[in-house]
């Protein structure tokens, strides 16, 4: 049976769960597409680019990595980055249950990417490690 989860079998009775193979977020009984969430966020008037990433820890959560456009940078300078974050959360709450809204946010000048211009999940997750 395909559940969309990545796992590693250790024995007949034991396995290690590594997370989701797809980009579907499941928190409590709520589901959302991370791609759809990042597209909705990227459509905001203050945002140039956005990516969502699953963060593993004691419990699964979502991180948002955002590149602000010129208007967004001006707003962050004037009102503070926390005010911009609240505005973006407000945008997501129109469509998503509060448990699905990203708890951690990173505002970056450029979206991390490889030589082919693709953003790797590991690069995004690294932005949320301690020390960042």
Automatic annotation (TrEMBL):
GO terms for biological process: amino acid activation for nonribosomal peptide biosynthetic process. Keywords: Ligase. GO terms for molecular function: ligase activity. InterPro entries: AMP-bd_C_sf (IPR045851), Beta-ala_Activ/Resist (IPR052091). Transmembrane segments: none annotated. This is AMP-dependent synthetase and ligase. The lineage of its organism: unclassified sequences, metagenomes, ecological metagenomes.
């Amino acid at each position: 049976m395909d559940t969309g989860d990545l796992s590693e079998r250790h024995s007949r009775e034991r396995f290690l769960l590594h997370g989701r193979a797809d980009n579907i977020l499941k928190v409590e009984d709520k589901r959302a597409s991370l791609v759809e969430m990042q597209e909705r966020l990227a459509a905001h008037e203050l945002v140039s680019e956005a990516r969502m990433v699953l963060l593993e820890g004691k419990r699964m959560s979502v991180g948002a990595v955002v590149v602000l456009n010129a208007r967004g940078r001006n707003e962050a300078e004037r009102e503070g980055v926390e005010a911009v974050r609240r505005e973006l959360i407000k945008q997501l709450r129109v469509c998503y249950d509060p448990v699905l809204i990203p708890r951690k946010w990173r505002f970056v000048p450029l979206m991390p990417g490889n030589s082919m211009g693709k953003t790797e999940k590991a690069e995004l997750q690294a932005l949320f490690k301690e020390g960042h």
